[in-house]
Specification:
single chain; mainly beta; Porin; eight-stranded antiparallel beta barrel; 2 helices; elongated; disordered N terminus; Outer membrane protein beta-barrel domain-containing protein; signal
Length: 179
Amino acid sequence: MKNLIQTLLFTMLLSLSGFVSAQDNNDKQTNNGGHYKGVGQLNVGLGVGFNYGSAGFMADYEFLQLGQDFTMAAAVSYYGYDTYYAKHSTFGVGVRFRWYADRVLGITSNKWDVFASGDVGFGIHSTNYHSGYENTPSGSNVSPIYWGVGIGTKYHFNDKIGLHAIIGTGAQIGITFGL
């Protein structure tokens, strides 16, 4: 798991350095705020769950405009943690809804976005017991539903690359790609 996180972090930093060198200075602003980047954004990052100190990665792609300031994204995640008796991992699949508050807050810069998010989906949880617990069956189960909430921000270097952070039922930090 440690090597996976290091590889993902290195890949994100390498991607960031390549995209920053191709910075776009085409600023688009509106007089009343509300300029946000949503649909067409791929958000990839590392996360920490506040339950059991789980760590992992997440990705979502905003593909649908639901209203003036709302988007919907398909989302996947993987989180894992280790206890003294077993390794636990959860693969999640769901949707992430975002409400962009730029217009309400009067944010006119195309560099910053502020949002609230909500997640809903299901998770496939797997438990593999360490030696000494052979009589305990390892296995997987599917949770009927998971949910999460958070607030976050994005900083866009240009239309193609930016950074994002979310805090709520977990914490995430990552890179935003404009596709």
